[in-house]
């Protein structure tokens, strides 16, 4: 572990603690009708997790000179949408997983109907935050941009489309270009939105800076997914907090299954370098984003 990553650890934990409090405050109370649905929402959202997408947004905001207060609601919206996708993906009609973040998945802890409604309600809450939170940019155009970025990232040309391709491809032999296309939608789209929503909160941002951030977000989104695929092969269930070997069990085409482990690790390294090069125009202001990328690609779960 590098010295920079060790130093970043304190910031990472501070951001995670902040997000836990921010999410808790924005979720309905467990004793509020309908109690079972609200309890299941809280169970799913507040059950730990890396908070990758909010942290990417917070780091982007820091790079652009924005405060955490100015972007906290957008970070919460990202995490709510991410959790909704996990709840739905874990269900029997999708990946049929029993374990998430080291404990029973939502449909196991509650039931399938409740889990379906949890995902629906979390998505609605996310867009409500973007529409109404008073700390986000007051400019209507900025609000519309935030809503549009998140909507595009999770729709049929983003996360939902990638999941559809993933389900259709089980047992099929995909080429590496097809796998990367699928991952750019299923995982990469929301990772990119995490960075670009941070940029959308910064008024008057120059086009060159926005292009640089987009050039950073694309490679990192793909590298993150390849690292996930590698951990599925190299990790263990206790460390991952979810079932290891799931990709192989579902006969999914992944980078390790097509290229092998060493070549997949090299692909991550090259994507990481490409992302770092895109941050050059920001100089030292982007050091926190550089630390985030190192953390993402050095993780073991």
Polypeptide structure, described:
- This protein has 16 helices and two strands.
- With 301 residues, it is mainly alpha-helical.
- It has one domain: Farnesyl Diphosphate Synthase (Orthogonal Bundle), CATH 1.10.600.10.
- The chain has a two-stranded antiparallel ribbon.
- Helix 3 (52-63) packs antiparallel against helix 4 and helix 8 packs across helix 9.
- The mean pLDDT is 92.
Q: Could you outline the blueprint of secondary structure elements for this entry?
A:
Blueprint: H1 3-26, H2 35-45, H3 52-63, H4 68-89, E1 99-100, E2 103-104, H5 106-109, H6 112-132, H7 140-154, H8 159-168, H9 176-186, H10 188-200, H11 207-234, H12 237-240, H13 246-249, H14 255-259, H15 261-278, H16 287-298
Antiparallel strand pairs: 1-2
Helix pairs in contact: 1-4, 1-16, 2-6, 3-4, 3-10, 3-16, 4-6, 4-10, 7-10, 8-9, 10-11, 11-15
Give me the secondary-structure category: mainly alpha
Ranges where pLDDT stays below 50 over 5 or more residues in a row are none
Strand content: under 5%
Major β-sheet profile: 2 strands, antiparallel
Helix-strand sequence? HHHHEEHHHHHHHHHHHH
Number of helices: 16
Average predicted local confidence, pLDDT: 92
CATH topology: Farnesyl Diphosphate Synthase
Helix proportion: over 70%
- Second-tier CATH architecture: Orthogonal Bundle
Query: Strands of the biggest beta sheet: in what spatial order?
Result: 1-2
Question: What is the CATH superfamily classification?
Answer: Farnesyl Diphosphate Synthase
Rounded radius of gyration (Å) = 18 Å
Shape category: globular
- The N- to C-terminal Cα distance equals 15 Å
- Total beta strands: 2
Domain module tally: 1
CATH class: Mainly Alpha
